[in-house]
Amino acid sequence: EKKVSPGFTAIKYKFFDALVYKKLRERVGGRIKFFVSGGAPLDKNINKFFWGLGIRILEGYGLTETSPAVCINNFRLLKFGSVGTAFDYTQFKTDVDGELLIKGPMVMKGYYKNLEATKEVLDEDGWFRTGDIATIDEEGFVFIVDRKKELIITAGGKNIAPQPIENTIKLDKYISQAFVYGDRKPYLVALITPNIERLIEFAKNENIQYLDLEQLVLNKKVIDLYKERINEINSKLAKYETIKKFVVLPRDFSIETGELTPTLKLKRKVIYEKYKDKIEKLYENSSE
What we know:
Blueprint: H1 6-27, E1 35-37, H2 44-52, E2 57-62, E3 69-72, E4 85-86, E5 91-94, E6 99-103, H3 115-121, E7 128-136, E8 142-147, E9 152-153, E10 159-160, H4 162-170, E11 175-181, E12 188-194, H5 196-205, H6 213-216, H7 220-234, E13 243-248, H8 268-274, H9 276-281
Parallel strand pairs: 1-2, 12-13
Antiparallel strand pairs: 2-3, 3-4, 5-6, 6-7, 7-8, 9-10, 11-12
């Protein structure tokens, strides 16, 4: 096996740093020490990419009820894909179902004039139920899996977090957004929206004639393209996480159409109801 000298790697990095990386850092001001990311998952490969550019992003986690931050990665303790380790005086543990519980002086005393809601999330010992499914490794790094209420429970009894699957799908260059569904169903299906620029380029190269996007996404060559992309994505997933069928929608989900929250999270119930006929059709004649 051919080994690359560390010195050669350093020289190569300096070359690309001068040619490309430095210019990218200048686009964000040139003097940024680091960014903090929170509120939604940051794909670890994207984070690694930015670190390679010299743009350091530290992912953290917290909620309004915890004032808000409770953990973060730092330059001394860092694991890509995690939200870091606990702040001082902060305790973490997971419940039997994997829900992350937090205890510490930053946790609220309760919801204002709402005792019932307070009892639902705070126990007598001061442990706060976050509503997030998480894992904690032996070094204390916290990995958020998904929102507990968004877990998919399949007909076979599998508990599946849709968000990591959706994030994997969205990494494909031909895909913009993804919605994974499968609650009480025999397999997972997806609604995907195309990266419009990439799709139009593909259509041009394949000499596909179309009047609008609605017609384009129904074209056989386009459907075959997305079958190939989904099959490739499925090869990276566990068998029970794979997407068996899908629909390509002509446009992205948006805040204006009511499918996204102001923080760009999927409104799952709204999306399901809006595209219920398309989704349920994916389960017709199912023998699985």
